[in-house]
TonB-dependent receptor (Rhodothermus marinus), 875 residues
Amino acid sequence: MGIVKPGLALSGFLLIALGVQAQPVRYHEAPLRQVLEEVAERTGYAVLYRDALVEGRTISLQTTSAKLIEALADALAEQGLKLEIDLNRRQLLVTEARRRIVTLSGEVRDARSGAPLPYATVAWHADAALQGTMADAEGRFRAMLTVPERQDTLRLRVSYVGYVPQTVTVGIREKAIVVRLVPEEKALPAVVVIGSASRLDGVDTSWQRLIRPERFAPFGEPGATRALQALPAVGLTIGLTNGLNVRGSQTDGFQLLLDGMPIYHPTHLFGLFDAFNADALEAVGFYYDVAPVVYAAPPGGTLAFATRAGSRDRLHATAGLSNVAGRLLLEGPLPGQQGSWLVAGRHALIGWLDWPGNAKLLAYGLDVARPTSPLPSQAVDLEARLLERGPVAGAFYDLHGSLLLDEARWRLRLSGYAGADEAQQQAYRLMPDWSLAGPLSSTPRWQPVATRQSWANRALSLQASYWLSSSLRLHTTLGMAAYQSTYAKDDFLYTLSGGSLQKFFRRLAPFAYRNALHEGRWEQAVDLGQQAGIWTLGAALQVVSLSYTESSALRLKPFVVKQHVLNIDGFGQYEGTPHPWVKLLSGVRLHTFATGAQLRLSPRVHLTLHPYGFWSVGVALSRNYQFLHRLAFRNTNSTGVWLLTESKQPPTAVDNLSLGMQLRPGKTRFSLDAYARYLKHLWQHEVEVPVYLVTRDRETAMPWLTDVEAQAHGLEVLLLQPLGPLEATLGYSLARIQMRHPAILNGAWYPAPWDRRHQLRAYLDVPLWSGGALALAWFAASGAPNTESFTDPAQPKRLGPYYRLDLTLFSRHAAGPATLEVRLGVFNLFDRANPWYREPMLVLTGPRLPRRFDFVPVDVYDLGRQASIDFTLRF
């Protein structure tokens, strides 16, 4: 037939091409079918191919007319195609090359420090599509891929948020590929989002760039937790927050880990910003759908922080100053280049720096004289608030430390964290001389009242990894954590029952609690890499001891409880690519809760079809359990209270189903997800559900409910669209979150307090100059449920809508070896009065003297305009 291989036939074909002028030929991502037709016109050869073989493929090449066939053959070979030449029949035949399966493995490191880069992205082109994988928490990657039989090299594009991407050519048979990335001038942590049912590809870094802590800093200190509100799965975050509501879950269903250890209070100053120095963090993994089985994964997802390893080349320092805090970080190599160290500290300046609005911010967080809607006409403004604010004080700090030792086959990391907050507000309030059993007295008197809160968190972690071979790794985590919190408010608002479901009245009275927790944790895992993926097996042991004391007007004597538990878990997981069109994460975690000898099974499956290329679809299923619960007081922004499931109580359980699709036309990214969640045995404090109090014996019952049900259904849309030099992001969620309890509203479903049916968020990043950018963030949401309507049918079911525009201006300037970063932020630029919640307020009413005390419902507003500034110097 006269068919010869391209390499042998090219010399003969060049004789034919001698008469053709060496004109330049360029194609950039041109349709392959079009290129083949033009090659036929240029050469006079017929080009034969199967339509299915070239459909949807594009090709790029740059050559001359004389070398067109040679360049075409090379370009086709990169896509697994072979070009054969039939000189006798003057034909070019495009066929599919014979293929083989190979395993690619290696690691990604920081070029300066030598530290591993967790969750780095490794991508390559194969079969006209972008494929790839994601490194693990140790910066190691492993993937199985199919390549043409004679292909010996592969071009990898390795990227990591905050580092300069690098393209390298590696040998297919290389056993230990090491890619080193050079860091950019910014050092804020990368956030890897694993949540969408169709997003388990580990290739496209567009979603990682969506979460940028540096552009979410309206209060002066950047942080990853607040930056997560860019995702439609995360509920709208107002100025102050007790935590994140993820796909309908309560805030206690959201777990935050630092180097494998839990942090029980993850924010400073009532949720304004993270309790971590962003300069000291290396990477963040956010799992809100199906998490790997190495995480216990409560209902609301897991946010896993990693402390950054120190520099290995020389001593580096980072200093920062904002309107609320000062911070310093030092890092450098250990003697003999055997590792590195890092220390970082941050301390509040809010008590020393008289920045406009700082004092009001503290009072607002302590729920003292928050701004409200106008009072009713019968309440006189001059006397209605009945409160005179006194001195206010607040402070916080956090410390980070990291020590890294490693060799070729092992790595040892020791890290520690300590953080604390305290705040207090003195005031005088005009109140009646009431008792819990009697009506409001008309004889008022001024009484000193105070609100005080504090918390402290400590964590220590030792992580060791040892590679028995290139495909077998042992990983050990040992750690301990301690947490304590106190809260006291002399004028806490109670809703009390008068012996009938139709009779409720209000009182201001003291409320206080103290909570302490100690935890020890050991975890052992082994990873086995195979051609198709990675198997993980392991076990975890957790010992927890805690105490809780509460003083409440609902009880004659303090409530005291002490709890101890031993929890042993086992887990197994497979993650890989069993087929080029299929990516799979499948595993199970077995919980054994020693208190009560409870045994629970937590299965998880995350399947993605066609993970590479223009489109992908996926489905995720899981069941998760929660044995440790955080009681939050919705509108007080108090410190958290942590309690354990008792021996006769079932743990909180959630069944999760989600479906997703993703489209990637060009640089546009579009994601659509639908989910359904069913939750049982949720915990709520009794002061959050006053309707329930009439059915309980307050002296014998626990001060919390443990058998609340909930269901959440939602649709989420996310769009990333470059607009020339600009970049726009649009997120929308349509969701319904409902709860019920047999003793509340006759067992009927009612909206959760955080249920906002429609939520829209839009971001626009505008580059201004080299190193300068403006970030605009617009939030809009339908009104939150009006909890006052539960006891007053005349009240509207929902509050007014929420609109807010935040602005962050960022600029970077290099001066020799140092780099200066300046960040200006404004929260709620237009100072809109956004309804947060509705609650009764104590007022004096009546058209004439003597006036009487009464409670009238008012809307409490979110924070108004807040300006901030931050300077960071790196050298």
